[in-house]
Amino acid sequence: MLSIVFWFVLGLIALIAGAELFVRSASSLAVRLGISKLIVGLTVVAFGTSAPELGVSIQAGSSGEADILLGNIVGSNLSNILLILGIGAVILPLRVNTKLIRTDVPIMIGVTVLLFLFALNGQITVWENATLVLIFIGYLLFLYQENKVAMREIEEKKKETGLETLVEEIPLPMIALVPMGIAGLTLLILGSRWLVGSAVSIAEILGISELVIGLTVVSVGTSLPEVVIVVVAAFKGERDIAVGNIVGSNILNIVLVLGTAGLVIPEPIPVQDVMLRFDFPVLILATIACLPIFFTGNKIGRIKGGTFLFMYFAYVLYLFMDATGSPLLEPFKRVMLFGVIPVAALVILINFIPEYRRRRLFYLAAQRRKRRKAEKVRQKQESRPNQEPKADKKSSSNPEPSSNPESSSNPESK
User: What's the CA gap between 30 and 319, in Å, rounded?
Assistant: First the structure.
């Protein structure tokens, strides 16, 4: 048992160290190549923090542990939203970029609902995984266009205030950053193997199902890099990287990690009925809740973060009560379904509706100011042609005196 725990802890350490090396090297390369702060969080940092999930999913799929594969994806996305954002917001309130709310959060909701639709028939086929990979490619192209717009805005600000460093760079030449990234990925792969192997052994010893282990222990372990990134980025004021990392990681977990793992393993990925009845609906509700919560004040405060943490611990408690057959499971379920969740939804709506009305009024007022400004400009342009003839007429009625000395009325000449 001690050897299993040793390999489990060593796997977690390797995952964290590998993610740290990979993220630092990849972020420094991205900054030197001129990629915007938000895109770095959505892609480079998100891919680095999703690399543990990718390693664990491929390893679990190739080993025939399909429950850990899908449970790791669903559990990791849930822990990213409820646990990681909750911890980060409690430590330091997180600001949310408006572009995330307008584009990337709806994309995150869309791919989550699409995955649920794929899973309704009890399995996720190779063609459905290929569809997820194609969505990943389209998402990258979309981010490429977004980066062009963001870099143009940065160039405009650079002329006035100068361009700040997007993320903390490593004082190494670019040729040294590539081996560092490869070393980080190597540690991620090795750590994922040790983590999956020891987690399966612990599940067999304790009599806990592999699904519960994948939804909790493995998913939290592979989400530890996100914890480090969110907390560090929040303290450094890098709000785009902090929240963008979570949103991007959730998107990549579905379209890249699950899609790639599903193409690597030879058989379709089976989906248990309990995931369709409970885990997927919880994930969809948590993902949808991000939109009004992020929208309200463009900020995740400590109260919202505490609510996220409470919901996550309630979810984990439900899993263990269900796995152990606790007699308190049914009362707990009724309290959550008919008490806590409706109250939480009501609080979200109470905060969201006034914020939506305020922003709507602000938008309409801005549109009215813009129309008035355009009307003034149009009136000025129309009045200019009418003023020019008057000026000509005035100048013609008051001719300038001739500069010819012979025609001037000089009293001396008289």
Answer: 40
